[in-house]
Amino acid sequence: MSAQEANDVLERLCNLQRMEARAFGLRYGLQPVQMEALTYLTQCNRYSNTPQAVAEYLGLTKGTVSQSLKVLEQKGFLRKQADNEDKRIVRLAPTTKGSNLIKKALLTRSLEPALARTDSIKIAELTSALRSILRGMQQINGRKAFGACHTCRFNEDHEKNGYVCGLTREPLSVQDIQLICREHQYPH
Amino acid sequence: MSAQEANDVLERLCNLQRMEARAFGLRYGLQPVQMEALTYLTQCNRYSNTPQAVAEYLGLTKGTVSQSLKVLEQKGFLRKQADNEDKRIVRLAPTTKGSNLIKKALLTRSLEPALARTDSIKIAELTSALRSILRGMQQINGRKAFGACHTCRFNEDHEKNGYVCGLTREPLSVQDIQLICREHQYPH
DNA sequence: TCCATTTAGTTTCGACTCAATACTAATTTC
DNA sequence: GAAATTAGTATTGAGTCGAAACTAAATGGA
Fold first, then answer.
1. Contact A140 B114 (CB under 8 A)
2. Residues A53-65: pLDDT tens digits?
3. In sequence order, which residues have a C-beta less than 8 Å from that of residue A20 and are 6 or more positions away?
4. Which end of chain B is more exposed for a tag (fewer CB within 10 A), N or C?
């Protein structure tokens, strides 16, 4: 069992995912990149819902992303709102229409049901292996990991007092720590 | 450990892969889709090296793929050759320049080194979990898996007489069964 | 046998993505 | 308080993509 083998299967899985996402988006008049941006926005936390963060997550320039977001807004999938503290910053929030679309897309994709029929021990192994690979990739290429807070080295578990982000010192709820954060870093 | 969790990590990993592939390709004047096509062509077997197969693998229309292949040929990364038996069919073979580029790309990507530093037991678990998920996805969405012959239900192990493809009845070498085939189906 | 159908591939066209560049406006720095 | 930085937008040109129309070779009946 070689690394090449794992690489190939992973590659193929990614391709299938992309094909399905494309096909689904087309049915609703959305381009693949727009689906990806909207998916991200339904899963990211309140530090990470800006055009800049979307651009970093997708690995595209902010100019490019700006256009995709404009389309999503025009079609009623998300709302833009100026930040109260820093007026340069635009906050992006999916509308009900937008988040419903993504929910449906995730259910329609075959990855979800395929995972559902895999036993949970295997999924646990899989997730842990993938996470360690992701950590490795992050170290090697220096890019951000965009993980959820509960796997982040800055996240502090204050037991019955809840969670706190070590970067912003803000308290985080149980729901919060499941969301994707642009400041995410895996523990060393 | 939820399926959602595994889904997210997988999603992120795919995104990182794509970002790196894009960045690498750009340095050599190739578009992401061209890199993907060329990668496929260095890894597929002799039943699967046609424009149609590339289109199926990438989930694009043959017209679209035809253009990408034209560019790859013009830039000297692959050669086209008419099939001897069926003159409609075009056989695609990466040139030395082409396969060297892909070799370099795979090494440059961070997935490869990240896999290298993961212990082999974990990789074995990972591969087996991914494969079972892929099998599930294949059943659900009906798309082709494009796996390597040695994981295919048509592949027959004739022990010291080598391998035989149950579809074409052709003998296959040890190298052959590592390649990606468009007819691939996982065992039930 | 021969004509219709199917299959593999190409070409063309219009809608769209994307990076690069230049731009505005708000914030930070010193 | 001016210069530099940061967040975001607009424009442009190269390139992708799907749809549709096309060519050419193979297949399949009657």
1. yes
2. 999 999 899 999 9
3. A108, A109, A110, A111, B141
4. C
